[in-house]
Design goal:
The chain is an alpha+beta fold. It has helices at residues 2-71, 80-106, 113-198, 219-222, 232-245, 273-289, 316-322, and strands spanning 203-207, 213-218, 253-258, 299-305, 324-329. The radius of gyration is 56 Å and the shape is rod-shaped.
């Protein structure tokens, strides 16, 4: 009896131990299966998150490329540096994509790949920050390029305007020199004709830099002493002068009378030298108007009397020079 009970115990105990071991083995087996399923789920979720981030990065790159294409026509030369930077970004992105693909291939083979993937994710975050910084730098460079282009366009326009102005000024100066040379030749001819008519040099013609022409005649050429009536020779002289003045129909003419400082003794006609100077200037203007020799709208009369001498009144020669008629062809405008 006791022997049979012992055999029964010896038979049952190993079976019980084997069953317990088998149960524990199955428990650990299914536990590991659950862990692997959880790990696969986590890996798929990480892969989806990485794919989402990758699509966002690709969308950002496409946006930057669109902005680059929109302005590269006007900034072709300035965009060489930008193109180079964009190429580097694309190469860097391709490298990142290759790295991500490599990570995807290794997810199911190594249990420690999850930690490596998290590390890679941190690197991708840093890469994203670097990409954002690079994008901002490119945008700033584009803005600076636009500003520089505008500045160059303004400088080119300013240079073009300066060249146009210089060319116009050159043409104007050449035209002015030509007119001045023509005027000089004409008035030299007039002086020669007047000197030939008077048989002596009692005429002075000045061509000033502001295009004013001054014809100075001593009073004895036109008038008798103390008189404001033109002499026949004076009328002929004024006719010759009128021919030259009419070559400049758009310019005004000022006829100015001057005397010396000797007081008028016989005041039956002129009370002062001032009145005599004005009367002589008026006589010359009236003669210019006769027979429409000079348009009266161009003429004006001025009497200065003794108050604008060009020589000393202390000598007879100086007083003779001061007694004069000045006919001024005024500058244009």
């Amino acid at each position: 009896m006791k022997h049979n009970r012992g055999n029964l115990i010896l038979t049952f105990v190993p079976s019980l131990i084997f069953a317990s071991v088998a149960a524990v083995g199955w428990y650990y087996y299914y536990s590991e299966v659950d862990k692997n399923q959880i790990f696969r789920a986590d890996s798929i979720e990480v892969q989806q998150e990485l794919n989402s981030k990758l699509k966002k990065q690709q969308a950002r790159i496409e946006t930057i490329n669109a902005e680059k294409l929109a302005i590269e026509t006007s900034l072709q030369q300035e965009m060489n540096r930008v193109r180079s930077a964009t190429a580097e970004l694309k190469a860097e992105l391709a490298q990142r994509q290759a790295e991500l693909q490599s990570l995807h291939d290794q997810i199911g083979t190594v249990s420690g790949e999850k930690a490596q993937l998290l590390t890679q994710l941190e690197q991708e975050q840093k890469s994203k920050a670097h990409f954002t910084s690079l994008k901002n730098r490119l945008e700033q460079e584009l803005i600076e390029s636009r500003v520089e282009l505008v500045q160059r366009q303004v400088e080119q326009q300013s240079l073009h305007d300066a060249i146009s102005t210089a060319s116009g000024e050159k043409v104007r100066l050449l035209s002015q020199l030509e007119l001045e040379q023509k005027s000089k030749e004409q008035f030299v001819s007039l002086k020669n004709r007047l000197e030939k008519e008077l048989n002596e040099s009692r005429v002075e013609i000045l061509l000033l830099k502001n295009q004013m022409t001054v014809i100075k005649l001593t009073d004895e050429v036109l008038f008798n002493s103390g008189s404001a009536e033109l002499k026949p020779t004076g009328e002929k002289v004024l006719s010759l002068i009128a021919e030259s003045l009419n070559s400049y129909p758009d310019r005004a003419i000022s006829v100015e009378g001057h005397t010396d400082n000797v007081p008028i003794l016989h005041k039956d006609r002129y009370e002062s030298n001032w009145e005599l100077s004005a009367a002589r200037a008026l006589a010359a203007v009236n003669y210019f108007q006769q027979n429409n020799q000079v348009d009266p709208k161009r003429l004006k009369v001025v009497g200065y009397g003794q108050y604008r001498p060009i020589s000393s009144n202390e000598t007879a020669e100086g007083r003779k020079i001061n007694r004069r008629i000045e006919i001024k062809l005024l500058p244009p405008g």
